Amino acid sequence: MAADTSNPELLTLRFKNHKTTILLLVSRQESFTSVKAKLLDAIKSTGVTQINKQPLPRKADDVILGVPIDNNDPSQGWIDLEIPDMEDDGGKKAKKTSVLNATPLGAGLKDGMVLAFKFRQEGAKDDGMDIDDNEWDVVLPTFDDEEGSQVNGGDKGDAQAEDGDQA
Length: 167
Hints:
Strand order of the largest sheet: 2-1-7-5-6
Distance between the termini: 48 Å
Helix content: 10-25%
Order of helices and strands: EEHEEEEEEEH
C-alpha cells in the first residue's frame, strides 16, 4: 500500500549525490539527525556500499546535507544546510543552536524540494562555511533542445561523441 502523502505534516524530499536521487517521506517536525539516519538506511538497504567511488559512512552524523543557493536554479550550486557554531570575540564557541539545524520546517523546506548530500571523510575538518559547489557532487539532468534528448549534467561533449558514433 502506498504512503498517504496528503498529510500536510509530511514532505517528500529528493536527496541527490552524483547521479543518484533518493526520495524520502519525512515529517516537517523530524530532526535532521533522524532524516540523515533514514537517508543512510535507505541507501544501505539497496546493497550499495559506495556512491561515485565514495564509501558510505558508518554514522549518520557523517552525512552532510546541502540546499540550493537558488531554489529556482539548483545548477547555481549548493550551501551546507547546517549553520556552524559561531565564536564570540573571546574565541569561545557560542552555545546557540539554530532553528535551521533542527527540522525541515525550521529550514523552510517545501514538499518536493531537492537537497544535496555528501559524506564527511574521516579526519577531514568541515567548518560548514564552504559554498564552493565543486565540493558538492550533484549531476543535474538537462534537456538538450537541439538534439531533443536528455543529457546528464549538461555534458554536451558526451552527446556529441555519441552522435559522431552514429554517423
